């Protein structure tokens, strides 16, 4: 996707889009990306603002969720269990186009698709997700990922299935290496949930095996809760190595199945799950929306791009400050962006935005933990802040009923949010 715009063009774009699509018919809301942010935005816009003409552009005809993908690795679910169709959005009146956006003209407010169709919009919500930074880890590229899968973009299912097959084929007594990047990345507790559920699979089927988790950080989300569970459920199976203890991987060798850390230690493993550093998806970086961080800076009140008026960016591609990159927050951000876009199209001030996050992590059978937060736009700035006293995690301790209930709550959350997204 290409993007080129001058300061004069930006000013023209900002001033040249009167409310309600120039009072000519329905206002046109275009959504690019059909995941937690984009599908939510399209669905919510039709439900809450039926006067909007909503079009969703998504390449894939089916969407496989990253949440609950780790349970597929554990053998608890199949790919079919986390795969969703777009028919519900169509039933709500969303025009769904399965194609790729290849060119964006922010002045004319048009997007050209790979198939040749040109779509005009009054407001655009961009929710493209992430790209993997293959250049950030020596020896790791798309070819290496066929030997050392990342399985971190679940949408096509191939990487997830590959890692599952490798775990099944590994002999008992083998070593699974997991490479974990520095912040920020998609789903902060995701690698640790993955470690837990892989350990659950190994404890049932290959109990002499080990997991070596090499981390580019010294601390992680819900750390004490995860480590309590590892000691209780999988004693001696998981070794977590922090950055301070030479856990940061700088090079991989797919042929030798080796992971090399920054102080030169080489670890030979039987299965390697390499999760590389990430950035906003190419559609955002190629369009010039991302800054030096690799993520897209936005107006914290409206989630509008700071460089492209009329373009609201939600989900993992956005630079969220203290907010984690989670499916729940993408859902919350999408609703806030739709509310802001609808108000601006009506010539009204956008409402105050509040962003809610709850993140459940399965650790074992009938065992889950969670963290919750509420965020808002910081007064007088472009940043986000956590609402004081709003956050919390599951209590520590030997609480089997608490863990069982949270596993049920997690299942209920997944069913609810995917129904909210896809109808």
Structure report:
The protein is of the alpha/beta class and 423 residues long. The protein has a domain at 138-278: FAD/NAD(P)-binding domain, CATH 3.50.50. Helix content is 29%, strand content 25%. It contains eleven helices and 23 strands. It has helices spanning 7-15, 19-23, 36-48, 69-73, 87-91, 158-169, 190-205, 223-233, 282-285, 327-345, 400-422; strands spanning 27-32, 52-57, 62-64, 83-85, 95-97, 101-105, 110-113, 118-120, 123-126, 130-132, 175-180, 210-215, 238-241, 249-253, 258-261, 266-268, 271-274, 278-280, 311-313, 354-364, 367-377, 384-386, 392-393. The strands form seven sheets. It has a five-stranded parallel beta sheet. Strands 13-12-11-17 form a four-stranded parallel beta sheet, with helices on one face. α3 (36-48) links the parallel β1 and β2 (52-57). α3 crosses α10, α3 packs across α11 and α7 (190-205) runs parallel beside α8. The longest helix has 23 residues, at 400-422. The protein is globular.
């Amino acid at each position: 996707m290409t993007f080129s715009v001058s300061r004069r063009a930006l000013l023209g774009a900002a001033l040249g889009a009167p409310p309600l699509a120039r009072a000519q018919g329905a206002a046109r809301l275009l959504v690019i990306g059909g995941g937690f942010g984009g599908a939510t935005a399209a669905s919510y816009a039709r439900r809450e603002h039926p006067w909007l003409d909503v079009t969703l552009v998504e390449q894939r005809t089916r969407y496989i969720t990253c949440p609950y993908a780790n349970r597929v690795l554990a053998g608890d679910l199949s790919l079919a269990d986390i795969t969703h169709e777009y028919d519900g959005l169509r039933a709500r009146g969303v025009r769904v186009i399965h194609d790729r956006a290849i060119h964006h003209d922010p002045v004319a407010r048009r997007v050209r698709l790979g198939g040749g169709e040109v779509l005009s919009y009054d407001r655009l919500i961009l929710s493209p997700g992430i790209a993997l930074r293959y250049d950030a880890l020596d020896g790791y590229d798309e070819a290496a990922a066929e030997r050392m899968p990342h399985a971190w973009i679940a949408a096509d299912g191939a990487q997830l299935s590959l890692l599952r097959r490798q775990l099944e084929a590994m002999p008992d007594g083998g070593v699974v290496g997991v490479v974990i990047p520095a912040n920020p990345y998609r789903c902060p507790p995701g690698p640790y949930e993955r470690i837990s559920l892989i350990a659950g699979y190994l404890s049932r089927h290959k109990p002499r095996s080990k997991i070596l988790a090499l981390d580019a950080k010294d601390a992680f989300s819900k750390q004490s809760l995860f480590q309590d569970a590892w000691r209780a459920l999988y004693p001696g199976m998981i070794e977590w190595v922090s950055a301070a203890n030479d856990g940061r991987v700088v090079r991989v060798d797919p042929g030798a199945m080796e992971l090399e850390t920054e102080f030169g230690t080489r670890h030979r493993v039987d299965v390697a799950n390499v999760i590389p550093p990430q950035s906003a998806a190419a559609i955002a970086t190629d369009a010039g929306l991302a800054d030096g961080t690799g993520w897209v800076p936005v107006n914290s009140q409206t989630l509008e791009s700071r460089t492209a008026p009329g373009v609201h960016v939600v989900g993992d591609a956005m630079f969220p400050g203290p907010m984690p990159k989670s499916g729940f927050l993408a859902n919350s951000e999408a609703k806030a962006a739709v509310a802001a876009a609808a108000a601006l199209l009506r010539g009204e001030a956008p409402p105050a935005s509040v962003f809610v996050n709850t993140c459940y992590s399965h650790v074992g059978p009938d065992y889950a933990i969670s963290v919750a937060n509420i965020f808002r736009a910081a007064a007088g700035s472009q940043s986000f802040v956590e609402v004081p006293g709003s956050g919390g995690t599951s209590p520590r301790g030997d609480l089997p009923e608490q863990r069982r209930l949270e596993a049920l709550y997690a299942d209920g959350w997944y069913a609810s949010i995917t129904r909210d997204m896809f109808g």
